[in-house]
Design goal:
Blueprint (H helix, E strand, L loop, with lengths): L4 H11 L4 E4 L10 H15 L7 E4 L8 H8 L12 E5 L20 E5 L1 H20 L3
Parallel strand pairs: 1-2
Antiparallel strand pairs: 3-4
Amino acid sequence: MTRDAEEALRDIEGIGGISRILTSGHGKTAPDALATLQSFFLMTKELIEDKPWGLTVLPGSGVNPTTITPILDALLPLGLQEIHLSGSHWIDGGMSFRREGMGMGAGGEGEWGIWMVDREKVSEVREIADKYWESYHGRDE
C-alpha cells in the first residue's frame, strides 16, 4: 500500500530488474481502478523505453468473467499482455469439530473453509480473453 501510486511506480522502476508489478491499480479491485491502471501502462512505456528489462503491469483483484471485458477494453490498447486472477471461492471445510473461540486464522466466511479454484471460472475468463486478444490483434492485419 502506498500514498501515491505513480510515485511508487517510479520508485520501483528505479530499482531495476523488476519485471512485473501485480496491482489492483490502487483500488479495491482492478475494475474499480482502471484510470490508474491506464496511467501505469502509459508511465511504464515512458519509464522503461531505454532499459534492458521490461516492466509488466499485471492487473489483479476482482478479475472474473463479468469484469474481464472492461479491463481488456481499457488496457489492451495500452499494451496489456497478462492478467491475474485467483478464480477461487470459499467452500465449507467440512470440519465436524469447531471449537468456540478458535479458528483457522482466515476470519470471516473462510474461517473454517477451504479456498478452492473454480476451474470453470478460470476457463471462462481465459476464453473471453483469448477471443478478445484474437479480435484485437486481427485488426492490425
